Amino acid sequence: MKIWMRVVNKMEMISVSHTFEKLIQAKKLFSQHDKEIVQIKLKAGEVIKEHRSPKHVFIFVAQGEVEFTVNGEEVEVNQERILYMEPDELHALKAITDVSLYVVKC
To answer: Which stretches make up the Cupin type-2 domain (predicted)?
Structure first.
């Protein structure tokens, strides 16, 4: 059995600002071809405006709680729930509490 693993020693800081109300600092943890993992931290009340991703998106919350609006439907996501979005689904989010989340795109 072949096991593929890549250890990432250095996190790359990236600025993500394409449709957000203000500049959001995010850490790109992994990027290869069409796959990407990004960590985003928001303070309570911070908002990321509606946008789309051309990829499948999985949201994993490490700490806190966040409200996503996906195609007009609101859903709260925390450590006990994972959010999955199809490519090109319109979505936005608002941090209910201080939140740390992981965005996996593939």
So the answer is: 41-101
41 touches 93 (CB < 8 A)? no
- Gap between the Cα atoms of 96 and 47, Å rounded: 10
Please tell me the pTM assigned to this model.
0.77
From the list 60, 85, 58, 55, the residue with the least C-alpha distance to 73 is: 85
Tokens, residue 103:
């965005």
Rounded Cα gap, residues 93 and 68, in angstroms: 4
How many Å is the Cα radius of gyration of the chain?
14
- Establish how many alpha carbons lie within 13 A of residue 91's alpha carbon, considering only the half-sphere containing its beta carbon: 24
- Which tens digits make up the pLDDT trace of 78-103? 999 999 999 999 999 999 999 999 99
- Given CATH 2.40.160.40, say whether it is the number of domain 25-105: no
